[in-house]
Amino acid sequence: MVKIHQPIGVMTDSFKLPLKEALRKAQEVGANGVQIYAVEGDMDPANLSSTARKELKSYIKDLGLEVSALVGDLAGHGFQDPEANPWKIEKSKRILDLALDLGSNIVTTHIGIVPNEDHSIYATMQHACEELSQYANSVGGHFAIETGPETSSHLKQFLDSLTGRGMAVNFDPANMVMVTGDDPVQGVYTLKDYIVHTHVKDGTRVREVDPREVYGMLGFEPMSHEKLAEMATDGPFKELPLGEGNVDFDNYFQALVDIGFNGYLTIEREVGTDPAEDIRKAVQFIKRYK
Hints:
By secondary structure, the chain is α/β, with parallel strands linked by helices. The chain contains eleven helices and ten strands. The protein has helices spanning 19-29, 50-62, 85-101, 120-139, 152-160, 173-180, 184-190, 211-215, 225-234, 249-258, 275-287; strands at residues 8-11, 33-37, 66-71, 106-109, 142-146, 167-171, 195-200, 202-205, 237-240, 265-267. The protein has an eight-stranded parallel β-barrel with strand order 1-2-3-4-5-6-7-10, surrounded by five helices. Strand 1, helix 1 (19-29) and strand 2 (33-37) form a beta-alpha-beta unit. Helix 7 runs parallel beside helix 10. The chain is globular and about 50 Å long. The N and C termini lie close together (10 Å). The model has no long low-confidence stretch (mean pLDDT 94). GO terms for molecular function: isomerase activity.
């Protein structure tokens, strides 16, 4: 079996607890780091003063944890809507600033499905992502696009059209298995130059589904995590505990080792009646490879 060395992260929102309780829970289950939503409420960058940021960073450090990434997913139609893009771009920059203040340089996000180059939306997304990429490049950070809405080869073509590595990849193997049917193992090799963060999640596809119905697109219902959780419970795909789905973790982890990925393996659990127990088991599942 492949031996892995990457640190283990946990998405705090998966515990469905207030943030400080979720942070303590992450420590209890044996995680090294945490990924935190930072788009609204107490974690909205506009609501966190410089003092509050220092206190939160200290609280996390005192638990023996670090921030693997922030989630800056502003939902809706990603960066497909030219009217919404100005405020989304500005807020995304502020979320990256917050990440840097908390000791991470990664913000994960969904940008919307990348269409073919001849589609009018393509240029809109490219313009928005180029601005984000240049900003991230200037501060030494990354906006990491979550895999799933399109194939890895198509995502790579889009990323290759942007400046630098400011726009990068948050690799989620389960999304690929559940929605596009793309091969996550090959996807790692395809996107190797861009992967800065990963999700460890498992699932299976029940039937083929139009990615636009899952992740939204202009003209379709916008993406929401509530809708995703509903679809992953009783819909065209199922999110399952690690090892119970169709992600080939032996070869997936081997691929990450092969490309020299040293970042976080962050557990995400969007469904289930006892997420804390599922996450604890997921940590143990990953540790079997160490």
